[in-house]
């Protein structure tokens, strides 16, 4: 009897610890992005050339920096190619690498946002991160979080959503697409949709 109660108590302790760790991680992530939001806050309109939305280059023959849409597509390709393959603590291929010697995934993400060429877009993405903090407890959760974040951006821009194509069911296809450098739009050929 005592043994059964003991294992039940231990199981409950594991569950409580898991919930507490998840809550603390969520609160920590929220704080990171609230702090970033305060640092990036500006009332100035975007004046960077990269914030331009031109569809056609204004003067043929002149080299222009990429516009907002081109930068966005390049970032999403990079992010969706990286997320399924990055090693996180609960990932498929977690190794015993020292977390003290390398930055965390949250460090990487906040740096990515800080250097994003369009301040308006960076501010908007920080808002998304504050509302739904990145899930970095496992590689699978992190990959799916990026899909949800991409859908949140698409919703803000009135663009089509990925929806059910970004579910746990398709994680193997997302990993294969990542190894091939495909975007979420391009990985549809691997899951047989559209």
TrEMBL record:
Task: Report the GO molecular function annotations.
Answer: flavin adenine dinucleotide binding; flavin-dependent sulfhydryl oxidase activity
- The EC number(s) attached to this protein equal 1.8.3.2
Task: Give the main EC class.
Answer: oxidoreductase
Q: Which reaction does it catalyse?
A: 2 R'C(R)SH + O2 = R'C(R)S-S(R)CR' + H2O2
**What keywords is this UniProt entry annotated with?**
Disulfide bond, FAD, Flavoprotein, Oxidoreductase
Residue ranges occupied by any ERV/ALR sulfhydryl oxidase domain in the UniProt entry = 64-171
Q: Name one GO cellular component term.
A: mitochondrion
Q: Which Pfam families match?
A: Evr1_Alr
Q: Which cofactor does it need?
A: FAD
Alphabetized Gene3D superfamilies for the sequence: ERV/ALR sulfhydryl oxidase domain
Protein name as annotated: Sulfhydryl oxidase
Say which species the protein is native to.
Answer: Perkinsus olseni
- What is the taxonomic lineage of the source species? Eukaryota, Sar, Alveolata, Perkinsozoa, Perkinsea
